[in-house]
């Protein structure tokens, strides 16, 4: 009997430890999101970031090829075949679009999206440009300029920074980040696009493995229509939308030392009814319009800047990050269980 009680106690302790471990993992994931590092994981699989700049150092280069050999169906053969080739075709470098002021904004957006698409999606498992979301806008714009110079494949976060850079000379176009968190077959997936608003119509710029998860022409009458269109696109590839994070409008001043506000509104789709979800989206839309109408929104390039303003040095006090935790509006309390994996897909994960 005593032995039986001991076994039972050990089993209970093990369950408690597993529960605490799961909670710890979930907490770390949430902390990663708060720190802006959610883009370092893709469907539960971590990917590398080139933190050494360009040209790529030897250690990063070898790590990238080792990872390519690990994830590619042909394994090391594909890496050896490419690295050992002496007659590889020359890859054309996309030209940065030249946008005339007389060209209509929708046409300019299509041209920019075409350029982003020509850079191609980065499938190597190593992000070539390190993007720190806490950097001031001027630093991110310098990085975007480097992207156009190097013309390397990019991932979704890099496409957002590039989209901001290429639309800075369109003061009548408002830009704001839109982040998605989805669930499929036991893993969470994250994606980000650059939302745009022109003439009261919403659209987006970006890049993705999926055609319907990047560019959206500015034809949507409301922000909720745009988000619901993305939600439907996710549904078509069996992903369940979990969270939507909406940022504020980004300044058009490429020399601004302000930080991009990435998460002004965080909407937990599970805790909101359909109607409440729509209302929260429209509330965020009104918040952006109100901020612009009051003159507290992003300044346009035509506004004068003080000549003595420069990028902050490490020794100087950088702009304070807004306490987004206090600004976030809580969603409802509704709780639903995670959807089960689809049996007929045999564990195959659709990565978007």
Brief summary:
The protein has 352 residues and is of the alpha+beta class. Helix content is 38%, strand content 15%. This is Tubulinyl-Tyr carboxypeptidase 1.
Low-confidence stretches: 1-39, 302-327, 332-351
Indicate the mean pLDDT.
80
Bin the helical content: 25-40%
* Largest sheet report: 6 strands, antiparallel
Shape: globular
Order of strands in the sheet with most strands: 8-7-6-5-9-10
**Count the strands?**
10
Primary descriptors:
six-stranded antiparallel beta sheet; 352 residues; disordered C terminus; alpha+beta; two-stranded antiparallel sheet
Written overview of the protein:
With about 350 residues, the chain is α+β, with helices and mostly antiparallel strands. It contains 9 helices and 10 strands. The strands form 3 sheets. It has a 6-stranded antiparallel β-sheet, sandwiched between helices. A two-stranded antiparallel sheet has the order 1-2. A two-stranded parallel sheet has the order 3-4. Helix 5 packs across helix 6. The N terminus and C terminus are likely disordered. Keywords: Carboxypeptidase, Hydrolase, Protease. GO terms for molecular function: carboxypeptidase activity. It comes from Eublepharis macularius (Leopard gecko).
How would you summarize the topology of this molecule?
Elements: H1 2-34, E1 41-42, E2 45-46, E3 48-49, H2 58-71, H3 76-83, H4 105-119, E4 126-127, H5 137-150, H6 156-166, E5 174-184, E6 187-198, E7 201-205, E8 216-220, H7 223-236, E9 240-246, E10 265-268, H8 274-293, H9 324-327
Parallel strand pairs: 3-4
Antiparallel strand pairs: 1-2, 5-6, 5-9, 6-7, 7-8, 9-10
């Amino acid at each position: 009997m005593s032995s039986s009680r001991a076994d039972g106690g050990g089993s209970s302790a093990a369950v408690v430890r597993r529960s605490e471990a799961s909670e710890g993992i979930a907490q770390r994931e949430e902390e990663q999101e708060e720190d802006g590092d959610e883009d370092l994981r893709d469907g539960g699989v971590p990917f590398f970031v080139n933190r050494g700049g360009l040209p790529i150092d030897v250690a990063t280069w070898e790590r990238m090829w080792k990872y390519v050999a690990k994830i590619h169906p042909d394994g090391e053969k594909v890496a050896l075949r490419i690295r050992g080739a002496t007659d590889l075709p020359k890859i054309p470098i996309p030209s940065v679009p030249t946008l005339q002021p007389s060209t209509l904004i929708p046409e300019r957006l299509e041209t920019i999206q075409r350029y982003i698409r020509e850079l191609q999606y980065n499938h190597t498992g190593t992000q070539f440009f390190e993007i720190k979301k806490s950097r001031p806008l001027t630093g991110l714009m310098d990085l975007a300029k480097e992207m156009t110079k190097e013309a390397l494949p990019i991932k979704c976060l890099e496409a957002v920074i590039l989209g901001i850079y290429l639309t800075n000379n369109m003061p009548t176009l408002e830009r704001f980040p839109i982040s998605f968190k989805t669930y499929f077959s036991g893993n969470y997936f994250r994606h980000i696009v650059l939302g745009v608003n022109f003439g009261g119509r919403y659209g987006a710029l970006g890049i993705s493995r999926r055609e319907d998860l990047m560019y959206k022409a500015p034809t949507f009458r409301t922000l909720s229509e745009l988000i619901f269109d993305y939600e439907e696109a996710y549904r078509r590839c069996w992903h369940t939308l979990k969270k939507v994070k909406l940022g504020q409008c980004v300044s058009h001043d490429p020399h601004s030392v302000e930080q991009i506000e990435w998460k002004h509104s965080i909407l937990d789709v599970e805790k909101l009814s359909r109607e409440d979800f729509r209302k929260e989206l429209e509330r965020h839309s009104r918040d952006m319009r109100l901020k612009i109408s009051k003159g507290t929104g992003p300044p346009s390039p035509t506004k004068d800047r003080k000549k003595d303003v420069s990028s902050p040095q490490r020794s100087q006090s950088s702009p304070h990050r807004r306490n987004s935790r206090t600004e976030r509006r809580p969603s409802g309390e509704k709780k639903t269980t995670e959807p089960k994996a689809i049996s007929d897909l045999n564990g195959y994960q659709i990565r978007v």
